[in-house]
Specification:
Layout (H helix, E strand, L loop, with lengths): L5 H9 L2 E3 L6 E5 L8 H14 L5 E2 L5 E6 L4 H9 L16 E2 L12 H14 L12 E4 L13 E11 L11 H5 L5 E4 L2 E4 L19 E12 L11 E2 L6 H18 L6 H8 L1 H10 L1
Parallel strand pairs: 5-6, 6-7
Antiparallel strand pairs: 1-2, 2-4, 3-4, 7-10, 8-9, 10-11
Length: about 290
């Protein structure tokens, strides 16, 4: 067992060096910012794993990379070598955690540039709020479309790309081979009495139907992001509350800032963000947002 104090172990964990279950070695958690790495960064991580660790790395569900097997006496060397290529460790503690964007930037289903948003959120909230102590961890997920691959609705703050369609009255010609109806996987688009109709209670704003009609019956109404508040994984998972509107990315980032400050001021020690919302009520939380 390693001979250092519990206080030092806690300090190292806050820096992204987590004591392994063998009580001798540390895992180094490396931040990827937007889930991508350049060749020189990948090479350096591999070098560090070979030189100081077990010779392999693993990936967390939040797009960070972990290098296991780091000895205590090598921690400062690892930090220095990561810094050579602009990388750093972290990602733990009662603060805004590393941001998780899906691959919507390059995905055929992506409606927003998720990785760009991830970088913006990382800079503004992971780095910018790094010294802000919160009641518990605060996780942010950015999904490019309603497929929800990275489960934004199970993050403390979830962002989902949206493209809302609208019907261009008079352009539907009742062609009896409606591609709009075929495109809709939610069963929201239907031809009724020889006209296309969209049930917006079913529509998830995936945008697949927009501009698909050869006669222009479906066009873009609004695009942006949906916001979920207070989701969480773990022993007691909870789907976040949908704010019910489509926001611009800039509006979403401003709402993150307001939400974090409310959580800091009104959350109890050890209380997750979703539990705070449950305690005071979502309508009261929305009112708090509007008052800032």
């Amino acid at each position: 067992m390693i001979n250092i104090s519990e206080e030092k172990i806690k300090e190292l964990k806050g820096e992204g060096f987590i004591l392994q279950n063998n009580k001798e070695d540390f895992i180094c958690r490396v931040i990827t910012v937007d889930g991508t790495l350049k060749e020189k960064e990948i090479s350096k991580i591999g070098e560090i794993a070979d030189k100081y660790g077990y010779g392999h790395v693993s990936f967390t569900v939040r797009l960070t990379i972990e290098i296991p097997g780091i000895k205590y006496e090598n921690i400062e060397k690892v930090k220095k070598e990561l810094k050579e290529v602009g990388l750093y460790s972290g990602g733990t503690g009662n603060r805004v955690r590393p941001i998780v964007p899906c691959k919507g930037t390059v995905c055929t289903h992506g409606l927003i540039d998720t990785q760009k948003i991830g970088r913006e959120v990382h800079e503004r909230f992971y780095l910018g709020f790094y010294d802000m102590k919160l009641p518990h961890k605060f996780k942010i997920g950015v999904g490019g479309c309603p497929n929800n691959c990275i489960k934004p609705e199970l993050n403390d703050f979830g962002i989902v790309g949206q493209r809302k369609p609208k019907i261009e009255n008079g352009k539907c010609i009742a062609c009896n081979n409606c591609i709009v109806e075929t495109k809709c996987k939610m069963g929201a688009a239907k031809v009724i009495e020889e006209k296309i109709y969209i049930d917006f209670d079913k529509c998830n704003n995936c945008g697949k139907c927009i501009d698909s009609c050869h006669f222009g019956s479906i066009s873009l109404d609004k695009e942006g992001v949906k916001i979920f508040l207070g989701g969480k994984w773990g022993k007691q998972p909870k789907i976040g509350d949908d704010l019910g509107e489509i926001y611009t990315v800039e509006e979403a980032l401003d709402i993150i800032e307001k939400a974090v400050y409310i959580y800091k001021d009104q959350g109890k020690a050890g209380e997750r963000f979703g539990s705070l919302i449950d305690r005071i009520g979502i309508e009261s939380f929305k009112q708090n947002l509007s008052n800032i």
